[in-house]
Design a protein that fits this description.
The protein is an all-alpha fold and 581 residues long. It is built from 24 helices and no strands. The protein folds into 3 domains: 71 residues, SP0561-like (Orthogonal Bundle); 411 residues, Cytochrome C Oxidase, Chain A (Up-down Bundle); 75 residues, SP0561-like, CATH 1.10.3910. Helix 15 packs antiparallel against helix 16 and helix 17 packs antiparallel against helix 18. The chain is elongated, with a radius of gyration of 27 Å.
């Protein structure tokens, strides 16, 4: 056996593949053997800077009039590595999932829920909304908004952070189709089970297929990482999602001709607990360990407290499921107490989400108010669980289950106060990060926060108030309008961020302070030497420029006046256009 040859083979295999979006300088630095190939294709030697411009290979090939495929093949041969043609496609895998989640919540989820709440408010009683229609709203919101959002983020984030295999495009398309069939099919079945009795079992089976597919994806991503508590929490979320889907299918099959209106109260509660405590909270606790410290700017988490979160939470859930089916009211007390203890352990482990890392305000780090979303969300989680434990204790003492109004307000605090608020906050920070871009409309962060915070507070308080004052029914529908407005603004902001408008540089040929430096140098690589001459040393040091880095931020970080730098850049661009015309 040749150890030298084996080491060389391993080194070649371990090298990252070439991608069309890699810069010429990055390729020349990482793979010195590629320099001669790049010289032959037209990249000049430079005495004042490192070899290679900060120009992506696809732009370089197009500007030099060469075939990109041939260039990459020659570079890969010289580098002894492979070509990754799916990298860019993998970066957008989350987009259709998030778009679908937003469309579902604005229509079948929160949109339909707002209409039902209007009917309840007008009639002055909760029974004004048919049970089947309420279940349809809840399942559309949980499966169609929460689950779709989490799955989309997981498909994009886990392969990047856990170094797992990229999901195949066909798998992602089938997974999305299965989830949408389960959500949309289940909603229309709930509206007309007599005519669409076949759609109940079919949509339920589709959810089972989707959950199993997602669990398979998670098992591949988390293989060898289950000694980390975050990985076990995410894995538990996939497992509970599969159980949730199985129970949903079983109920839709058994009640195919009667619809979800025929579900018993314990079974409806079981579905909610599997969705909220089984899937959603495990996923949030797991992904939160990886994402929230960076978003909130909090300190390094406490490992022991987060480890206890996994065991406390899932033990509590295992006790809660038989308790919700009527085994024992005191069992529910113990179960919910464990769930509350898990939340306390998580908040302690995450250092209370208190910001300790301050940074200079700039577009790339997001709006400071986004931290308040996270803090508000966990306030509502703690408040909801405290109310739930207190209510279960009172119910056990009296020997009677909790009232619909009390339990409904607690559920709303969990689903909107906690989960939806967290998604709105994290989404407006995470989506730009995943897309290497900026939030489209940062000024919407404040009104979205005010709308969702006010709407949820109004809903929880008025639903509680209906226990003593009937006029509270008439105020409740206002909360739905506020929450729907928040979701509409959030959808607009995320949609524009996922599919941004054309940069002014490409529309008019003039840069702005929000223009991406990477885009500027990709379109005008000749500007690189000018920026170096003006004293922007970062351009000479880096191998590639983050796509989210703006011209304004670059100027400030290099001690330059942004407006002055912008004027000089646009002046050169104008002279270049005049010379070429």
């Amino acid at each position: 056996m040749d150890p030298v040859g084996s080491a060389e083979a391993y080194s070649a295999k371990a090298r990252p593949p070439l991608r069309p979006d890699m810069t010429v300088r990055q390729v020349a630095a990482d793979y010195p053997g590629c320099r001669e190939v790049l010289r032959r294709y037209g990249e000049p030697e430079r005495r004042s800077a490192k070899f290679g411009h900060l120009e992506p290979l696809d732009h370089f090939a197009r500007r030099q009039g060469h075939d990109l495929k041939q260039l990459l093949q020659e570079l890969a041969q010289a580098a002894g590595t492979e070509i990754d043609w799916q990298g860019r496609q993998a970066e957008s895998v989350h987009r259709p999932f998030l778009l679908s989640a937003l469309l579902v919540t604005l229509s079948l989820g929160a949109g339909w829920g707002a209409w039902l709440l209007w009917e309840i408010g007008r009639a002055g009683r909760f029974t004004a909304a048919p049970v089947g229609h309420v279940v349809a709203h809840g399942e559309a919101q949980l499966w169609g908004f929460i689950a779709l959002f989490v799955v989309g983020i997981a498909l994009r984030y886990l392969p990047r952070s856990a170094a797992g295999p990229l999901p195949r495009p066909l798998f992602c398309h089938l997974l999305l189709a299965a989830l949408l069939l389960g959500v949309v099919g289940g909603f229309f079945w709930a509206m007309g089970p007599e005519q669409l009795h076949w759609l109940g079992p079919l949509s339920g089976l589709s959810l089972v297929v989707a959950a199993l597919g997602f669990l398979t994806f998670l098992s591949r991503q988390l293989a060898g990482k289950l000694h980390f508590s975050w990985a076990r929490l995410i894995g538990a979320a996939g497992l509970w999602m599969t159980i949730w889907a199985g129970v949903t299918f079983t109920l839709r099959y058994r009640q195919s001709a009667a619809g979800p209106g025929n579900y018993s109260e314990p079974l409806r509660q079981l579905l909610m607990e599997l969705a909220i405590f089984g899937f959603a909270l495990n996923a949030i606790y797991g992904f939160g360990q990886r994402l929230l410290p960076g978003i909130a700017g909090s300190a390094t988490p406490y490992g022991l407290a987060l480890e206890s979160t996994f065991w406390l939470h899932n033990t509590g859930l295992l006790l809660l499921l038989p308790a919700s089916l009527g085994w024992s009211l005191w069992l529910e007390v113990w179960a919910t107490t464990l769930l509350l203890a898990a939340t306390l352990a998580y908040v302690i482990g995450m250092r209370g989400f208190l910001r300790v890392r301050r940074s200079t305000p700039r577009p790339e780090v997001g709006e400071a108010l986004l931290v308040r979303y996270v803090q508000l969300a966990f306030f509502w989680l703690l408040a909801a669980l405290i109310l739930l434990v207190g209510g279960e204790c009172w119910a056990a003492i009296r020997g009677q289950p909790l009232s619909h109004a009390y339990l409904g307000s607690v559920r709303h605090a969990l689903t909107v106060g906690f989960m939806t608020t967290l998604i709105l906050g994290v989404g407006q920070r995470l989506v730009p990060i995943l897309g290497h871009t900026l939030l489209a409309w940062p000024r919407l962060v404040a009104p979205i926060f005010l709308l969702i915070a006010t709407g949820n507070l109004l809903r929880v308080s008025t639903e509680m108030a209906t226990l003593a004052a009937a006029p509270a029914f008439g105020i409740m529908p206002l909360s739905a309008l506020l929450e729907l407005a928040a979701l509409a603004l959030f959808a607009a902001n995320i949609g524009r961020t996922l599919w941004p408008s054309l940069d002014p540089l490409l529309r008019s040929g003039r840069a702005t302070l929000r223009t991406s430096v990477a885009l500027l140098l990709a379109e005008h690589p000749w500007l690189e030497d000018q920026l170096l001459d003006w004293g922007l040393g970062y351009i000479g040091r880096t191998r590639s420029v983050p796509r989210e880095l703006t011209l304004g931020t670059l100027a400030r970080s290099e001690g330059k006046e942004p407006e002055e730098l912008l004027a000089r850049v646009n002046d050169l661009l104008q002279k270049r256009r005049n010379a070429s015309s």
